[in-house]
Amino acid sequence: MPAVTFDQVANWNPDLIRRPNKGFALLGNMDATIPNAFTDGVAAEFQSLASAGFESLGYIDKAAPPTFTPEIESSDVEAWGALEPPRTDIISRKTMVSATLLETKRRNLELYSGVDLSAITADPTTKEIQFTDPTAPETRYHRVILGLVDGAGANTIYYLRILPRATVTSVGEQTWSQDGSLAYNLTWSAKIDDDLGYSVKHVLCGPGIGPLLADMGFTATASVPTITSHLPAGSLAAAGGESVVLLGSHFTGVTAVTVGGTPATDYTLVNDTTLAITTPANAAGSHDVVVTNATGPSAAYAVTYA
Predict the structure, then answer these.
(1) CATH code at 277?
(2) What is the pLDDT of residues 219-240, one digit of tens each?
(3) Is residue 23 part of a domain?
(4) Mind listing the pLDDT tens digit for each residue in 262-275?
């Protein structure tokens, strides 16, 4: 075997060390939508989750940030005369997530007290709010997204943990001390969502991920464009010259657009899912639209000229 240096053997890469410089905790009801992707386009910009039904739980105590504790239960098969079990089976894996929230607001009060406060209103005159701890607590499930952010600008990296079905299984003591803020220490237990089929999903994303994929041991699968619809819907003028918007995916890096084999008069990339084109002239009838990027051409999408 060829000789190698220590550096070659160690193969250290400081670019792969992540530091949670800041982060967030988002909460949604069980009807909140967990998106298939959290970033969009070649710039990999993080997308808002408010429209999906998630809201921020606010500031988190720096001394008690999100902490993930996997619990693995195993079962050994003991053998007569063997010094160690010849077989070990993993029979369960559970994840507990704890964090200390600092903001006193409805969502955090609900999680800490274990009661639904959505119907509680303030006194119209004094603005006083009152609620009681439940005498018969019930198990309440939420969807939780926790994220850390490392780097800035083009080097920003997000590491997300998605809990599609989580319930608060313990709360920590709350001290009313002059030396610190009021805080809400919670521990969630991640449960398997029957529809999604998982209890915890990991997502690494952001503009800083792309340049590190190879060093991290991953590859990116390039995709050809996909056209799903066009606006305005309906037939196109045979004379051409119309402004049409193509909707689909993987339009980033578009190199050509043809309609019935004729190049589009012009095209403008709006984002990865939206492409504006100016139609060429074509005879009346059905014609195929094809969008090409560096990976290859899309499947034909039929439009009608009239």
Answers:
(1) 2.60.40.10
(2) 887 789 999 999 999 999 999 9
(3) yes
(4) 999 999 999 888 99
Rounded Cα gap, residues 68 and 163, in angstroms: 11
Provide the residue range defining the domain that includes 279: 226-305
pLDDT at 137: 86
| 154 and 281 share one domain | no
CB neighbours of residue 112 within 10 Å: 19
Q: What distance in Å separates the CA atoms of residue 184 and residue 61, rounded to the nearest whole number? A: 9
- On whether both 58 and 156 belong to a single domain, the answer is yes
Terminal-residue alpha carbon distance, the chain: 71
Percent of the chain with pLDDT over 70: 100
**What is the C-alpha radius of gyration for the chain, rounded to an integer number of angstroms?**
27
Of 158, 188, 216, which one is at a domain's C-terminal end? 216
**Which residues neighbour 233 within 8 Å (Cβ) at sequence distance 6 or greater?**
none
pTM for this predicted structure: 0.78
